[in-house]
Amino acid sequence: MIKTKVFCEECRNDVEYTITSVPMVGKIKGKEYQYTGSEARCMDCGSLLYVPELSDANLRSLYDVFRQENGIIPLDIIRAIPEKYAIGKRPLSLLLGWGEQTYSRYSDGSIPTRQYSDTLLRIYNEPQIYAELLEANKANLPSQHAYEKSRHAVDALLSSSNNSCTKIDAVIQYLLFQCEDITPLALQKALYYVQGFHYAFHRDFLFEEDCQAWVHGPVYRDIYFRYRDYRFDPIERTSSFNSEVFSAGEKAIYDSVINNICCYSGKILERFTHNETPWLVTRGSLPLFEPSDRIIEKSIIGAYFDEVKSKYRMVNPSDIRAYAQDMFRQI
After folding, report:
1. Chain centroid to CA 130: how far?
2. Out of 197, 243, 269, 271, which could bridge 189 as a Cys pair, Cβ 3.0 to 4.6 Å?
3. Would the CA dihedral through 135, 139, 145, 146 be positive or negative?
């Protein structure tokens, strides 16, 4: 890929250069992190060149890996909060009781502390928490108009939330009710298999949400942030659940996934998905440990699980057992 010219110290001249993706290692707070970056080389002598834009992009890639591996809020979510709640960066920072420029620095790419990261994630995921914060600290805002604009936005979100309970939330509660110990990693895989097998048997997708091809397999991003503090520990169980909200066909899928998929650990299920077409195709040529937010297209999931149903001659959801046992033998 040819770019504009930059100065080459070997050629002592402004030269054209090529850009290639290469594995890199960076250090943050004394720990090394592997990531994929870009390097520029002179087209005349092949020397490594310094290009400010590439250097900035590599630093952002390093920070993205650091955020993902340390459970720090992603930059895109930080930048989405002001739009979600119709509030400026400076007013939001004041609302949170921070310095005027603190939020702006985070929005520009600085990495927040774990405490500040948790605060931002919580208000992003829970409009009710933001609404309470808005009321408690509205005196910190620069104007009544700023308050009213943000109040209108959060009220609309709360109204929408109260009028709809998503299918994925209901399935999560059922899984947490039925499974004695299910970790966040295992929960993600269970949701993925529920989505796939529901399509194979009923010809429609249960969840509107898309999953992404993360390093550890398919992940529903918002669900990850909801339960990430449990890390490798089982999520707290739901004490009661009325399964009459599901159809008989839906419940048959959930119960079979619970009995035949959730009996394996999250790490085993991760290895299952690493050998399946949807994750492999979506990841493409990405290095094994390269973070990615690529969406696993529903069409790919549907086509794969159609093939699985046909190959294993599945007649009803209980036949999922044969596929799970075969995958376990293969790994």
Report:
1. 21
2. 269
3. negative
